[in-house]
């Protein structure tokens, strides 16, 4: 379990991880066997911005090296984008109601800024041809790679959304940590994702952190009987005060490493959320959990395929949507703002 202050070790540990993943990487990305949405393609930017994937990876290497916590945050951010109104970059919009709803409140401004920085770099070299939703997809894929997970190709060609989800939609579409498997499978199915995808994608909880408030109900007033006793003992002492809401590792066995130990946690009844632990308790998903716990390669292959399937949910392509000039604003808002600023400048210089 982590104390928030142990994050001061992050730069050092993340440097070691990055070094080991870069040196062990053969440079080969594998392509999962997934039917992709019309309008998306592998190598979509080969002619109009061939350097996009290299630019993204280079920048993120520096970011994740100095703050490995951002890798987990970006991986989570992409899933929140895709589950609400599809992978259209709507979660990046400052004015979208989804930004103020509870599941998204904890994202730091810095995480959004990383995607905007990527946009600036890529648009500087290629012009405004790459969407913010594709940049988020690439950043999430690279978060997995840089923390030791599989390196896989992702289809690109998404365009950015121009509509906001309605208020309340975010809390409805994102799954609560208190959810049981029946609810989880139904919600994944609504997005076209099957039970193996649900288990594999939950394996993203092999990295990152969570607040005690996300699983407090499993500790108080009584121990959730599906939680192993010594794990409960540590957590209940650590999370004792509701006034402060400390952070704990999602996978205490290897919190910085993208590996299959999350599934070993579940087999030991040391999953953090009900939504995690119940995947082992439920007979429909237990076999997949055990399979992934014993076979990391199986997990990696299925995770990559599930990420691609999640990454095509509700995408906008071809003539739909737009390529944003700023990731945090729709172009209509951006150009309105520009003309307001221009008017302001004219009137202030007229006043002089
Ligand atoms: C059953 C579905 C899921 C539920 C209920 C769930 C719930 C949560 C919750 C409650 C947190 C911690 C929030 C906090 O307390 O601060 C979290 C963190 C996280 N989630 Fe999920 N999640 C689910 C699926 C996913 C998926 C599909 C991904 C990515 C593919 C993902 C990636 C992550 C990551 C990486 C973190 C750590 C974030 C950080 O350290 O900043 N989750 N999730």
UniProtKB/TrEMBL annotation:
Cofactor list: heme b; Ca(2+)
E.C. no: 1.11.1.7
Keywords on record: Calcium, Disulfide bond, Glycoprotein, Heme, Hydrogen peroxide, Iron, Metal-binding, Oxidoreductase, Peroxidase, Secreted, Signal
GO cellular component: extracellular region; plant-type cell wall
Entry binding sites for heme b: 205
GO terms, molecular function: heme binding; lactoperoxidase activity; metal ion binding; peroxidase activity
Reactions mediated catalytically: 2 a phenolic donor + H2O2 = 2 a phenolic radical donor + 2 H2O
Residues noted as binding Ca(2+) 1 in the record, renumbered to the chain: 81, 84, 86, 88, 90, 98
Annotated ranges, domain Plant heme peroxidase family profile: 39-331
Signal peptide region: 1-27
Its biological purpose: Removal of H(2)O(2), oxidation of toxic reductants, biosynthesis and degradation of lignin, suberization, auxin catabolism, response to environmental stresses such as wounding, pathogen attack and oxidative stress. These functions might be dependent on each isozyme/isoform in each plant tissue.
Family: Belongs to the peroxidase family. Ascorbate peroxidase subfamily.
Name the record gives this protein: Peroxidase
């Amino acid at each position: 379990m982590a104390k928030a202050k142990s994050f001061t070790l992050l730069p050092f540990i993340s440097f070691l991880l990055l070094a080991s993943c870069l040196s062990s990487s053969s440079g080969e990305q594998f392509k999962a066997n997934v039917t992709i949405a019309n309008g998306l393609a592998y190598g979509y930017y080969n002619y109009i911005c061939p350097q996009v994937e290299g630019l993204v990876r280079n920048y993120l290497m520096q970011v994740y090296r100095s703050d490995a916590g951002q890798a987990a945050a970006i991986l989570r951010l992409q899933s929140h984008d895709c589950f609400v109104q599809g992978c259209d970059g709507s979660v990046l919009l400052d004015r979208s109601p989804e930004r103020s709803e509870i599941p998204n409140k904890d994202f730091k401004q810095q995480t959004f800024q990383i995607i905007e920085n990527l946009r600036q770099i890529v648009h500087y070299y290629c012009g405004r041809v790459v969407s913010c939703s594709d940049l988020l997809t690439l950043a999430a894929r690279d978060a997995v790679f840089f923390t030791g997970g599989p390196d896989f190709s992702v289809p690109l060609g998404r365009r950015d959304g121009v509509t906001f989800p309605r208020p309340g939609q975010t809390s409805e579409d994102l799954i609560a940590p208190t959810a049981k498997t029946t609810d989880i499978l139904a919600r994944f199915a609504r997005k076209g994702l099957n039970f193996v995808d649900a288990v594999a994608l939950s394996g993203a909880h092999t990295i990152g952190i969570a607040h005690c408030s996300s699983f407090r109900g499993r500790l108080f007033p009584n121990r959730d009987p599906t939680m192993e006793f010594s794990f409960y003992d540590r957590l209940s002492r650590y999370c004792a005060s509701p006034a402060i809401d400390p952070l704990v590792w999602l996978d205490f066995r290897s919190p910085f490493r993208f590996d299959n130990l999350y599934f070993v946690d579940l087999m030991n009844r040391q999953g953090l959320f009900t939504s995690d632990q119940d995947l082992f308790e439920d007979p429909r998903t237990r076999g997949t959990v055990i399979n992934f716990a014993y076979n990391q390669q199986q997990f990696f292959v299925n995770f990559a395929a599930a990420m691609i399937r999640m990454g095509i949910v509700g995408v906008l392509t071809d003539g739909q949507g737009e390529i944003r000039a700023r990731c945090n604003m729709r172009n209509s808002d951006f150009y309105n703002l520009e003309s307001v600023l221009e008017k302001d400048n004219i009137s202030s210089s007229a006043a002089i």
